[in-house]
Structures are given as structure tokens and as C-alpha cells.
């Protein structure tokens, strides 16, 4: 799994990074809240380990902006020295999925990360019909529809649409979309742009509110109209 560590204690961050990497996970690390927020909002992670007392932007603000402005549903473990019940309640109310008080054993952090990611994935797999606004994709029949009208999609278009709908309203990076469409055998050239153009024509016909958005330099996102 891919994990982002947002922690300003260099020694703790290094120990956690080394341990999780040795467990076979992919890691990024940020030493302050603003850097962590930028990484979390522009890259795809399976989970985030987040400190509370961070420079530039505290962890609680990072969490609130992730859940609010970015609409991110990525599992978050808040790892902090704040051990009061009011702190824990505030953390959960702000959107953290788990709350650990320092010091904590590295194997426990890794085990909790695995459990959170497994639950998140199970939640994704449990829903057999994905829906964003009036757009729907039935995972059993592979039929997509907009406002009840069936859509004609290629197999690649369905893979792209499923990834976008699962992550909605988060921004999905070009790399993640290419992996969804072609796995590890990504073709040369910018085929993704062509397929996204066809997908947009299919799901956003004239006269319908636009659901598919291009985020310049990052990727795409699918979101309902307010």
C-alpha cells in the first residue's frame, strides 16, 4: 500500500518510514502541514499517518481541509501526543479514522494501517452500483447510464469511469487513470487524453450539467453539480 507520513519529528518520521518500507509499502513523507496537504490533495495514497502539532498548518486543519475542500476519503490515522478525551473526540469529529497516542509501537501502526485500508477497500467492493449525481455504473452488468439513458462506452472507457466514480469527488491523477485502463502495460503516447475526450462526450452530452472536470497538470475528477 502507499502511505503518506505527515510528521515534523524527523527521527520518528525516519523510523516509521524505514519500518513501513521494510514491510513492503511505498512511502512519501512531509515535514509540515502545508506540504502534507499538497501531497495528499494531488497524489493518490491508500492511507495517511498525520501528526497534530505541525508547523505551517496543524494536523487538524490539514484533516478538515482534506475532508472538506478536497473531498478526500483516504483513511487517516492521527498520531499525536495529545492524549485527552476532548482531543480524541475533536480528531474523530474532524474526520480521522483512527487515533493513536505517542509513543506507540511501529508494528501496531502498520497493523492499524492494514486494517483501515482493508475496510476501505471492502466498502468500495460492497457497492455494486456506483452513482455520481444522475450518472450510474452497474458493476454487475457493466452498464452505465445518465439520467436513466444508457451510455455506450468502450471497455477502456468503463475502466476509466469506474476509477473516477470510486474516487469522486477527489482528483484522480493521470497515472492512476492509466493504471486503471491499461495496468502495467501503459501504451506510448497520450492515449489517455483521447479516451477521456470520448468519455466526456458520452457522459456529458449537450444540455446536461458537466460532471467530468479536467484539473490542469494533475488529472481529472468527476463530481456532481451543486
How would you explain this protein's 3D organization?
43% of the residues lie in helices and 21% in strands. By secondary structure, the chain is of the alpha/beta class. The strands form three sheets. The protein has a five-stranded parallel β-sheet, with helices on both faces. Strands 6-7-8-9 form a four-stranded antiparallel β-sheet, with helices on one face. Helix 3 links the parallel strand 3 and strand 4. 28% of the residues are buried.
Topology at a glance:
Elements: E1 2-6, H1 10-22, E2 26-30, H2 33-42, E3 47-50, H3 59-67, E4 76-80, H4 85-94, E5 98-101, H5 106-126, E6 129-132, E7 135-138, E8 144-146, E9 149-151, H6 155-167, E10 172-173, H7 174-182, H8 191-203, E11 212-215, E12 219-222
Parallel strand pairs: 1-2, 1-3, 3-4, 4-5
Antiparallel strand pairs: 6-7, 7-8, 8-9, 10-12, 11-12
Helix pairs in contact: 2-3, 6-7, 6-8
